[in-house]
Every structure is written in structure tokens, then in C-alpha cells.
Amino acid sequence: MPNIFDNIPKQLPEELTNILVNSNGVKIERIISQGHRSEFWYDQTENEWVIVLRGSAKLKFELEDKTICLNAGDFINIKAHVKHKVEWTSEEVVWLAVFYPAH
Question: How far apart are CA 25 and CA 58, in angstroms?
Fold first, then answer.
């Protein structure tokens, strides 16, 4: 049986994304960050529900000009076209992201 914490490389030059499920307009990804940050604003056509399973991170939202800190167990729902980026991550962050259609 797969485990969400298996097969995490020791060092990553950039974030690692693994698609776990992609079916009927819903995509579930495991994302591994190791001190990474976004160089651009995400402007997604779908909604994104994301939880930090390990580590901590800061998300910045353009429109509201605010930053949110997420620690292990914290989650957030980001509506489609809400521009955001990863401002900071700890040495290892394991995210679980669920992308689903905006209606």
C-alpha cells in the first residue's frame, strides 16, 4: 500500500509534484517543498483545497495583500482565480492538494 511520506528525495532543485488521482475533473497531488517559493502568482481555473501534512509554509494572496502561515494539519480552500504564491516553506513540507471544478 502506498504511503504519502514514501519516496521523498533528500534534495530537490525545485518543488516535486506527484499526481495521485486525476478523474472526473478532480485532481489530487502530493507536493514536496524544501525551502522553495513561487516566482510567480498562481491564477488557476479550478478551486484548490490544500493541507500541509508535514512542515510549515506561508502563502501570500495578491488581492488581499496578506500572508497566511500554515503548519502541519492546517488547510485552506482557495477559489479559482484568487492569485496566490508560496512565500516561504520550511526545510521539508509535504502538501496534499485537491483541485476541483469551479462552478
Answer: 27
Copy the grid coordinates of residue 40: 510567480
In the numeric block, which cell numbers belong to residue 86? 508560496
pLDDT at 93: 97
Q: Does pLDDT of 81 surpass 90?
A: yes
| 43 alpha-carbon distance from chain centroid | 13
> Which residue is it, cell 494539519?
73
Summarize pLDDT for 38-56 with one digit per residue, the tens: 999 999 999 999 999 999 9
C-alpha cell at 46: 479550478
**C-alpha–C-alpha distance, residues 94 and 56, integer Å:** 9
Q: Give the integer Cα–Cα distance in Å for 89 and 69.
A: 10
Which superfamily, per CATH, for 16-100? Jelly Rolls (2.60.120.10)
Q: Within 10 Å of residue 77's Cβ, how many Cβ atoms?
A: 11
- Extract the C-alpha cell encoding 43: 491564477
